[in-house]
Each structure stands twice: as structure tokens, then as C-alpha cells.
Amino acid sequence: MDIVVCVKQVPDTTDVKIDPVTNSIIRQGVPSVLNPFDKHAVEAGLQLKEKHGGKVTVISMGPPQAKDALKECLALGADEAVLISDRSFGGADTLATSYTLASAIKKIGNFDVILCGKQSIDGDTAQVGPELAEHLGIVPLTYAADIEVEGNTVLVKREQEDCYEMVEAKLPVLITVVKSINDPRHASIKGIMKANRKTIPVLSQQDLDIDSQRIGLNGSPTQVRRIFAPNQRVQGEIIQSDNAKEAAHLLVQKLLEAKII
């Protein structure tokens, strides 16, 4: 079974800052991590390989430093890794990103299953996976909490708000996974050393059969108008009194002062 896992290096959301002029995330000086949802996608891919054989290839589109995220995946047990990186890919929205990923996957070769985390923690759109499936002309199965493959058929347990849904499809398919699907393994020392010795090939625009008008900022119909952090909530205040009437009076005074009533 040939398994492709799409991963993304994202800024650590505990230390995110927004540029008020460009309305973009300031990545310089901010530590980057492997997108948490993608860790579960990698684990799902490794488990499928262990059960059915084959190989796991991880791919990522991003700047040169995104190799760190790919090396982490190799240390976990992925067989191969490919970085898609070119300045012309910068500023891509989900449509341009999924188009570029699809072009790279076509170049890599045959696949049975493509796995993605359900969303990235920097954009939170959950759009790249389904859009990638559309570009490749395959079935998208989203929010997977369990995956079973028998022959040429895959059975997926989809997580809904108040229930689970069982869906079935023929391979090849694209599956996006939720965190409840598994507990990602930790890399071993041997795995880390092996990953550090591996060379990660880089695909640029020239390496792909790609329409230059559909990539990067120029190929992105979605433009971000504004990104901002939510206002911090004021800590609540507890009114304590042994006298119920006195407590009620204090509460009313507080509400009046805050112009709530």
C-alpha cells in the first residue's frame, strides 16, 4: 500500500503575534512545530503500513526550514519525505496550496491513500484536504476517527458533533483525521539518527507540471483582510456574603457600575 501523508510546519500558537500592517502571522523568531493534527495523520499512515505493508511518504509545502517537520516524521518511521519549496509558492491560500500539493503528488507517483490532519492550527480552515482530493479526482473522507482497509475498500468512522457516521469507498481516497483516531508514537533515538542521515529532496516550481497563474499569491482568490488575537477576558469576580440581601445589593451595584443594567 502506497500512503502519502501531507504535513505542515506551523508557528507555535502559544507565542503567535500578528503584523498589524500586513495582517499576517509574524513567523520570524517564533518557534515552529509540526502541526498537531498532522502527527495523528502520520501515525495513522504508519499503522496502515504496519498492517498492510507498503511505504509512507510525507510531503510538505513550505520554506526550507520545513525540513525540520519532515525529519520529525522520518524519525517516527516514515520511509520517504519530500519538500515542496519555492518563493513563487509564497502567500498561497488553500486553493493554491492544494493545487500545488496535487501537482507534487502526481509527480511522486502512485498512491492508495492520502492522509491529512483535519486542519492546521494556524489557518484552521480544514479546506486543503478536500480541495486536494478534488484536484486529484478522488473521494475525500473527512474527520476520520477510525480507518479499516480490506482489499480495495476502505471503511471510515467519521466523527460528527453528536454521533459517528460509517462510510465506505473504493481506493484511492483522501482521508482527513481527528485527534481521537490514535495516540501518536514518540521517535526513538535510532529513528532520530536515521532521519538525520536522510536527504530530503526539494521540488521547486520548475520541477512540477504546474500553471504559474494558479500558485502562490497570484493564484489565490482568497485575500486575508484581517487577522487578530481575541481580546483577553477579564477575570471573574466572586461576591461573597453571609447575607443574601447584602450580596444581591453588591451584585446590583457592580452591574450598574459596569452599565450592564
TrEMBL record:
One Pfam entry name: ETF
Keywords: Oxidoreductase
EC supergroup of this enzyme: oxidoreductase
Phylogenetic placement of the source organism: unclassified sequences, metagenomes, ecological metagenomes
Protein name, UniProt field: Caffeyl-CoA reductase-Etf complex subunit CarD
Species for this entry: bioreactor metagenome
Domain Electron transfer flavoprotein alpha/beta-subunit N-terminal positions: 22-212
Its EC number(s): 1.3.1.108
GO molecular function: electron transfer activity; oxidoreductase activity
Keyword Ribonucleoprotein in annotation: no
